[in-house]
Design brief:
Shape: globular
Strand order of the largest sheet: 7-6-5-4-2-3-1-8
Distance between the termini: 50 Å
Family: Belongs to the ODR-4 family.
Strand content: 25-35%
GO cellular component, one term: membrane
Function: May play a role in the trafficking of a subset of G-protein coupled receptors.
Radius of gyration: 22 Å
Number of domains: 2
Keywords: Membrane, Transmembrane, Transmembrane helix
Order of helices and strands: EHEEHHEHEEEEEHEEEHEEHE
Mean pLDDT: 85
Largest sheet: 8 strands, mixed
Main location: membrane
Low-confidence stretches: 237-245
Structural class: alpha/beta
């Protein structure tokens, strides 16, 4: 028995529209949420066209010309824009009938390279019981026939398994949103022994240690510590019925432990340092969870990952910006301040879920609007962009 994908109805219209413009094929990403029983697909996003593709379209169409690197880069950029609980669930391809027989092999290859690229950047490890199946959706542009299969990304030898693809309206209407503010004050020493120390590498190591603290934290949901295996919505059911469906919002407090390890004795290490990095500020985090009897542990895991991702993504964006504007060879002398980009949230049309992005202080709203169109194929009004935070350094 294969997996079932419940798919937001509007995705069907989006894919149909894409199939009328297809020449000779189009690829894209499926975005949604895994759960033990079934998976939810809330958006499909086509791969942004490359400028030189127009000239390359001479001669007979071939899937061999598929630009794997371009597609995986797009997946990495999109994954930064997803709040906790959402991930790249798979890839799709709409192709002409003559390309159909090579389509599944191309999709299989893409699924594994996208997963490899995304897992490289993660500072958390997937749980043992986590769903590792990813979807490969193939649509024939002529017949509109839909074939959905899954591959287990934890198994390089994995073969295709059939999956059900079912459309449903208002899929996320009663999903649960969890939000928290985490005060960050991370001190990362730069060892004198590491020659010409790499700021990015050191920052990542420091964030790795901090992410373990987040993993070990206690999470209070609406002021209560809840057993991980209980249902998240337990005790809230009596409010339903007379209220119309809408996002239920849970406020979460994160309590980090002051000292790690059970032993009262600890050994101190003395290291000679040539400097340090300090990350300070308050970050706004958000996660969404399906409303089909979600467990507390699913919700907390989604929020933990958002906390860890949002900080590591921002540092990555800052370093990319510094390399673009200053060049990699700049030596830091004395004290220097860099402002991390602020987080903003944008509603998804026809959904209760919001997507996220990051904005530097001097970035105009127009640049962010362009990014949403390019990365997520979604127009965004400037008044719909909610900046969630003050400036962090």
């Amino acid at each position: 028995m294969g997996r079932t994908y419940l798919v937001e109805e509007s995705i069907g219209q989006y894919l149909t529209e894409l199939s009328t413009k297809v020449k000779p094929y189009v690829t894209g990403l499926l975005i949604g949420q895994c759960s033990p029983q079934r998976d939810y697909v809330i958006r499909a996003v086509r791969t942004p066209p490359k400028e030189q593709q127009q000239e390359e379209s001479l001669g007979p169409p071939k899937l061999a010309s598929l630009d794997e690197e371009w597609i995986t880069t797009h997946a990495s950029q999109v994954s930064r824009m997803l709040p906790g609980g959402l991930l790249v669930l798979g890839v799709f391809m709409i192709a002409t009938p003559e390309l159909a027989k090579d389509g599944q092999n191309a999709l299989r290859k893409l699924i594994f390279s996208v997963e490899k690229s995304l897992s490289k950047r993660r500072l958390w490890k997937p749980a043992e019981e986590e769903v590792s199946d990813r979807a490969a959706l193939q649509i024939c542009s002529a017949t509109k026939k839909v074939v959905c299969r899954t591959y287990d990304v934890q198994d390089p030898k994995s073969s295709a398994k059939p999956a059900d693809w079912k459309y449903q309206s208002a899929l996320t209407a009663s999903w649960v949103a969890l939000g928290c503010t985490v005060n960050v004050n991370i001190h990362i020493p730069l060892l004198a022994t590491s020659p010409n120390h790499d700021l990015e590498k050191n920052t990542k190591n420091g964030l790795n240690r901090w992410s373990k603290q987040i993993e070990d934290s206690v999470f209070l949901i609406n002021g209560q510590v809840k057993d991980e295996d209980t249902e998240l919505l337990e005790g809230q059911k009596k409010f339903r019925g007379n209220t119309q469906p809408g996002t239920q919002f849970s406020d979460v407090k994160v309590l980090t432990q002051l000292c790690q390890g059970a032993s009262p004795r600890s050994t101190a290490t003395v290291q000679v340092c040539s400097g340090s990095i300090n990350l300070r500020g308050a970050v706004k985090c958000r996660a969404y969870i399906h409303s089909n009897k979600p467990k507390v542990k699913e919700a907390i895991q989604a929020l933990k990952r958002d906390i860890i991702n949002t900080l590591s993504d921002r540092c990555e964006i800052l370093f990319e910006d510094m390399i673009l504007n200053e060049g990699p060879q700049k030596k830091n002398v004395g004290r220097e301040y860099h402002v991390l980009p602020q987080r903003l949230f944008v509603p998804v049309a026809g959904s209760s879920v919001m997507l996220s992005d990051y904005k530097f202080g001097d970035e105009a709203a127009g640049e962010i609007q362009e990014r949403f169109v390019e990365m997520l194929d979604q127009p965004v009004q400037a008044e719909d962009m909610h900046i969630a935070e003050d400036i962090s350094t």
